[in-house]
Write a structure and sequence with these properties.
Blueprint (H helix, E strand, L loop, with lengths): L2 H14 L3 E3 L11 E3 L1 H20 L4 E3 L9 H6 L1 H4 L1 E6 L6 E3 H27 L5 H7 L1 H22 L3 H10 L16 E4 L3 E4 L7 E4 L5 H5 L2 H7 L6 E10 L14 E11 L4 H17 L8 E5 L9 E9 L2 E12 L1 H10 L5 E3 L4 E3 L2 E8 H12 E5 L5 E5 L10 E5 L6 H12 L5 E3 L5 H11 L3 E5 L1 H6 L1 E6 L5 E5 L3 H10 L1
Parallel strand pairs: 3-9, 19-20, 19-21
Antiparallel strand pairs: 1-2, 4-5, 4-6, 7-8, 9-10, 10-16, 11-12, 12-13, 13-16, 14-15, 17-18, 21-22, 22-23
The structure holds glycyl-adenosine-5'-phosphate (GAP).
Glycyl-adenosine-5'-phosphate binds next to strand 10, strand 13, strand 16 and helix 13.
Amino acid sequence: MNQDDQFKNVISHAKEYGFVFQSSEIYDGLSAVYDYGQLGAELKNNIKQYWWKSMVQMHENIVGIDSAIFMHPTTWKASGHVDAFSDPLIDNKDSKKRYRADVLVEDHLAKIEVKISKEITKAAKRFGESFDAEMFAQTNPRVVGYKEKMAAIEARMKRCLEEEDLADFKQLIIDEEIVDPVGGSRNWTDVRQFNLMFSTEMGSVAEGANTIYLRPETAQGIFVNYLNVQKTGRMKLPFGIAQIGKAFRNEIVARQFIFRMREFEQMEMQFFVKPGTEMEWYQHWKDERMKWHHSLGISKDNYRFHDHIKLAHYANAAADIEYNYPFGFKELEGIHSRTDFDLKQHEKHSGKKLQYFDPETHEHYVPYVVETSVGLDRMFLAMLCHSYNNEKLEDGSERIVLRLPVNLAPYKVAVMPLTKKEGLPEKAREIVDNLKSDFMCQYDEKDAIGRRYRRQDAIGTPLAVTVDHQTLEDGTVTIRDRDTMKQERVHMNVLGGRLFAALRK
Ligand code: GAP
C-alpha cells in the first residue's frame, strides 16, 4: 500500500470508529476544523495526561496553569503577533488555489531530498556490503550537486523571509519551476504577507467594543502570569510553567486532516532560566523532549530534529522535532530559545516590572526562556498513523489493528461473555463492575466473539477478557492480547493484578 492510500485509510478509520469527525458535518463541514468523537476524546485525554504527568508531576520545578483564551489586546501588540505573525501566501491564477509560499519551496526541497535517497539506495545495491553511505553522500558528484542546490535554495528563502523580499520570493518559485501541486500550472500571483490571528469584538457597540484576538499560542498566557506564579509559588530559577489549551490560527492552507487546523491544541512549557544559561537549557530540553517521544515505544527512525531556517521574531535558536507522517517528515514539536524577548516586551507595554530577584547574586534581572511546544492534534495524528496496521494473518484472513501505545489506548480492557445466554452476561457485568474503577473498560456482547475481537483490535484495546462456560465452573476467564492474539486463562481472583502487569509490559 502506498503512503497516500495508507493516509486515506487512517482518515476513514478515524471517522468510522468515532475518533475524529469533520466539524459541523451536517452542514458540509467547516474547513480545517474537526471534532473529536467518543474514542478520540479518550485518546486525546490520555495524550494530555501522559504529557502533563511527565512535564509537571515528574518535575518539582515545573507547575501547570490554565489561562484564558481571551487576553488583553495589548498582549498581542507586545508579543509581536499583530505586526509579525504572518505567512507568505501565493495564489495560482489558473487553479485559483492558495498556497503558503514557504511550504511550496519546502515541498520542492523534500523532492530533491528524495532524489538524494534514491541515488544512495541505488549505489548501495550496486556496491553491496562494502558500501559506505556517508562517504558516498560526501563525494558522489550528483549527490553533492543536489545538496548544493538545496543549500542555495534554503539560503535564498531565508534571505527573502528575513528581509521581507517578497518579489524575490516569487522569483525563487519561478526560477525553481515550482508548479501548482493540483493543476501543474506555473501561473503565480505575487507573494504577500497574511496575518494569521483571528479577531473578534468584546463588549457591545454602545459600550465601545474592543477588538480582541483568539490566542494563536498558549505561551502568552504563561508570560503574563510569570510574576504571579513565581511569587505565589515561591519559585526559584530555573523553573517552568506548563499549560495545555486551545490556540487559533487562520491558516492559509489547511490540508492533511488534523495536521494543520484553524482551531487546535498546544501543550507548552516555558522554562525560565538565568541569562547566559539558556543554550545549555535549550540543549537539555531538546534531548528531554526527544526522549519523551521515544518513550512511547515507536521506532526512533520516525523522529528527527530540524533546525529552523528562519527564526521567529522572538527566538535566538529553534529546532523542530519532526515525525515521519505518511506525507513525509513534518513538524510535531518546536523547541525555542525565546531569550528575554517576551517578558521585556510585556514590561515595556504594561509598565510593570517582570523581574526576578536572584537570592544568590542579589541582582534583579529578566529571565531568559526556553520553550517546548507540542501540538496535541499532531501527536494524536502521529499516534494514529503509527498504530494503524492492516495485517495478514496465518489463516489468510486480514485484520485492522491499532497498535496504540498501551497507556494512550482509549479502552484498556474489553470484557465479553462468549454468548448472551446461560448467565455469562451477568458474570461479565460483574467483572466490569469490579474492574471499572481501575481500568477504562468496555462491555461487549453483540456479534460472534471473533468479530468482537476484531472490533477491539480496530480501536486499539490492548486486552480482552472473555467469560465462558468454564468461568461458571471454576472461576477462570481468558485474557487475550491485542498484539500477539495469544490467550491465557487466569482465575478471576487474580484478574486485576494480571491485567495491571500485562498493561505495564
Ligand atoms: N509558542 C510557540 C509556538 O506556538 P509553533 O511552532 O508555531 O510555536 C507549536 O507551534 C506547535 O503547535 C507546532 O509544533 C505544532 O505541533 C502545533 N501547531 C502549530 N500550528 C498548528 C496548526 N495550524 N494545527 C495543528 N497544530 C499546530
